[in-house]
Amino acid sequence: MAKAIRFDQPGGPEVMRSETVEVGEPGRGEVRVRHHAVGLNFADTYFRSGLYPAALPAGMGVEAAGVVEAVGPGVIGFQEGDRVTYTGSPLGAYSTERVMSAAPLIKLPDDIGFETAAAMTMRGLTCAYLLRRIAPLAPGDTVLLHAAAGGVGLIFTQWASLLGIDVIGTVSSDEKAAVARAHGCAHTIVYTREDVATRVRELTGGHGVPVVYDSIGATTFHQSLNSLRRRGLLVCFGTASGAVPPIDAMQLAIKGSLFVTRPALADYIADDTERAALAGELFGHVSAGRIKIQINQRYALDDAVQAHRDLEAGRSIGSSVFSL
């Protein structure tokens, strides 16, 4: 028997509940994984709230790290005892053990711990495609990143520094600004007291930045557009404050022939070869100590409700995990 966090209807954190579930044996193409740590991501709140559709009742969570305990027929490349991590699988990662498809699994190097893996697989692969696939960036470029002190933000700024890219990061407080700068952020903007677009123009000699990475959505969309230079690109990769407003194509022309994209991690790790390449680069940086994963919040699985409340209230810095 395993413990799992599940929900029957969309809503606030209180709709989640802890259950004891029968796991069973893996079928064709499946494995049974015992989790040692589970990732807590803002995207989890989208499924719980109903922003992202889910067939209910459902489990919660899409990221975890652990050990393969059983392998079903037809599985190639994995065996009992393998250390693995994953993200992007069907909901159900908030559990001590589960049966799942082997397709999303990534073998975990021995020198990366389970908590580190659970804290970085989704966030790190997100940073990998944002920096290595979305737009051509060169050393000396300056970009704007919202939520620079979050789990994605702290990985992104370190990786960008390795590439010679300067990051202007937005944060909500001086405490978070200090954390972002300590992880490689070249400049910080405390958006609670500074106008983001105005400050970006000041920092870039009036030109704006070539790319804005925006995981916030509704409340930052217009500031993001106004921070771009001519023919700049707005990358909307999250909606923490709600969905972006309808896009007026003529405004994109008026503001400088701007581009907007709304990418999803799933489309950058669907191909096994590309997923392996992105994961290999991420794991290499972490193993070598070039990128450090900061875990500042650890929860028991039974504390999922409080974990979501903390996440949505902006009380988190860096990554959060459930320790099992």
Automatic annotation (TrEMBL):
Stored SMART domains: PKS_ER (SM00829)
GO terms under cellular component: cytosol
Keywords: NADP, Oxidoreductase
Domain Enoyl reductase (ER): 11-322
PANTHER family: QUINONE OXIDOREDUCTASE PIG3-RELATED, QUINONE OXIDOREDUCTASE-RELATED
InterPro entries with a match to the protein in the record: ADH-like_C, ADH-like_N, ER, GroES-like_sf, NAD(P)-bd_dom_sf, QOR-like, Quin_OxRdtase/zeta-crystal_CS
Class of enzymatic activity (EC top level): oxidoreductase
Protein name (record): NADPH2:quinone reductase
Natural source organism: Actinoplanes digitatis
Cross-referenced CDD domains: QOR2 (cd05286)
Known EC number: 1.6.5.5
Gene Ontology MF terms in the entry: mRNA 3'-UTR AU-rich region binding; NADPH binding; quinone reductase (NADPH) activity; zinc ion binding
Gene3D superfamilies with a match to the protein in the record: Medium-chain alcohol dehydrogenases, catalytic domain (3.90.180.10), NAD(P)-binding Rossmann-like Domain (3.40.50.720)
